[in-house]
Amino acid sequence: MNWGGLEGLLRAVNVYSTAFGRIWLSLVFIFRLLVYLVAAEKVWSDDHKDFDCNTRQPGCTNVCFDHFFPVSHIRLWALQLILVTCPSFLVLMHVAYREAKEERLREIQGDNYRRIYPHPGKKRGGLWWTYLLSLIFKASVDLVFLYIFFRLYRNYNLPRLVKCELPPCPNVVDCFISRPTEKTIFTLFMVVITCVCVVLNLIEATYLIGKRCHEHLEAGE
Fold it and tell me: Keyword Translocase on this protein (predicted)?
């Protein structure tokens, strides 16, 4: 991973974020991304290899593992992280578009041109809507993934023993999940951090809308 490039992107996102957005970004980077890279991947690296069933029937273990783990936690978290961080980079792209448009006007009309965006990074007009929609999208993605985890993994809990009777298993087979307590703790940790991120997104969206309404009321007086 290019940490220098990632650090540059995070600094750029911070410039155009509110205080709530900076807290959200810190939580995502420290408590979600770093925990995912440093610890979570190692915890789930042996999930299939150490999924033991008390049978030697060919194919039974694979079928049972696929039934109880239809999608890996790690892959779901990776997809979730990608989806919740992309909207922040879309805000950067919108600001870059504004700056490029200003630069083209300056080249065409000279230094005394009429500026369309006196402050390209200020959340006004289309950029305000882009930022607000990015918050709603991020909160929606996190809520959808919380529901997916809740449905797939029995209220976020991984039991030590699961019973499987799917073909080609000859009968009811006992299967044992590796390190279930550790995996449950990590799952609950990620769930709690995700809930905090959702709350921050909603607070920031409320703050933006409230601030805009206050500005309109002051302008109307």
Answer: no
The dihedral sign for the CA sequence 118, 119, 125, 127: positive
Domains in the chain, ordered, with CATH? Answer: 3-219 (1.20.1440.80)
Closest to 24 in 3D by CA, of 193, 145, 141, 146: 193
Residue with tokens 């993605």: 141
Residue 162 identity: V
Task: Find, among 152, 151, 137, 148, the residue nearest to 198 by Cα.
Answer: 137
Among 98, 201, 91, 95, which Cα is nearest to 142's?
201
Per-residue pLDDT of the chain (221 residues; tens, 9 = 90+): 444 455 556 666 777 788 888 888 888 888 888 888 777 777 777 677 778 888 888 888 889 988 888 888 888 888 898 888 888 888 888 777 777 777 777 777 766 666 666 566 677 777 888 889 999 999 999 999 999 988 888 778 888 888 988 888 888 999 988 888 888 888 899 899 999 999 999 999 999 999 888 877 877 65
Q: How many residues does the chain have?
A: 221
Strand partners, 173: 164
- Measured CA to CA, the distance from residue 145 to residue 156 in angstroms comes to 12
**Does residue 95 contact residue 59 with C-beta atoms inside 8 Å?**
no
What are the structure tokens assigned to 60, written together?
């039974």
